[in-house]
Specification:
- The chain is of the alpha+beta class and 227 residues long.
- The protein has a single domain, classed as Jelly Rolls, CATH 2.60.120.
- It is 22% helix and 29% strand.
- The chain is built from five helices and 13 strands.
- Strands 1, 2, 3, 4, 6, 7, 8, 9, 10, 11 and 12 form an eleven-stranded antiparallel beta sheet that branches.
- The chain is globular and about 50 Å long.
Length: 227
């Protein structure tokens, strides 16, 4: 049951902070999914293994999970800042996040979209995420508290590739492109039972002036389609 709200701002706040939704679909107008997919594939050699595949830490075990930063500390620092020994004792405000030239110089459409169109600003990590054919990511939890946070954009999502969330089933990513704000306090896992690499983008940033409108339009579209 959705509470009654006096303003649109109250509704957006409830969706993001109080709803406990496992995910919320964003309908992004004019998102160049296919062009960004081509740019990601063209820089395949820049991707690095994301999270050590350490079988002693079952929650982080994976096969074929790789990433590269579009915006971050550097193109090859794909982990959270506090995962690196030289960042111990620092806060996120101490980190010099920037556009990673090795990537954006070769991905002009991706750079244009996230600088000029996407409803976030002041990015921290903004990454291409690659999962090899027949790769997997074991169930794990990223956040200790319930909140809709990172935005996960599918540039493709081949048939047979499933993103599963605890108590929510399969997140309905579309192969031709889709976007969801994710609540990563729910355990989640991915299996790519296809012969095609799965490539997504994950964005950590602050809402810009267009964010509330996108969330409200997406909410209204969901209601119109389902009720």
């Amino acid at each position: 049951m959705i509470p009654k709200f006096h303003t649109d701002e109250e509704l957006v706040y409830w969706i993001m902070h109080k709803s406990n939704l496992p995910y919320f679909q964003l309908f992004l107008p004019d998102c160049p999914y296919s062009l960004m997919l081509k740019e990601a594939i063209a820089i395949k050699e820049l991707f690095v293994s994301h999270r050590d595949d350490d079988s002693s830490q079952e929650e982080y075990a994976h096969k074929g999970w790789r990433s590269v930063c579009i915006h971050g500390e550097s193109y090859d620092r794909t982990e959270s800042y506090n995962g690196y020994p030289d960042n111990q004792g620092k806060t996120e405000k101490d980190i010099n996040y920037k556009w990673c030239n090795e990537v954006v110089d070769n991905c002009p459409e991706t750079l244009r979209y996230f600088k000029e169109v996407f409803p976030q600003q002041d990015y921290r990590r903004l990454r291409f995420m690659w999962l090899d054919p027949h790769g997997y990511i074991q169930p794990h939890i990223d956040f200790p508290f319930s909140i809709l946070g990172p935005i996960n954009i599918s540039l493709n999502n081949p048939e047979g590739c499933e993103f599963k969330m605890e108590n929510a089933g399969i997140v309905p990513f579309k192969d031709e492109g889709s976007a969801f704000i994710m609540n990563l306090s729910y355990a989640h896992s991915v299996t790519n039972n296809s012969d095609i690499p799965r490539i997504h983008i994950i964005s950590h940033g602050k809402p810009n002036k267009n964010f509330n409108k996108i969330v409200l339009d997406s909410y209204k579209m969901y209601v119109d389609q389902n009720y």
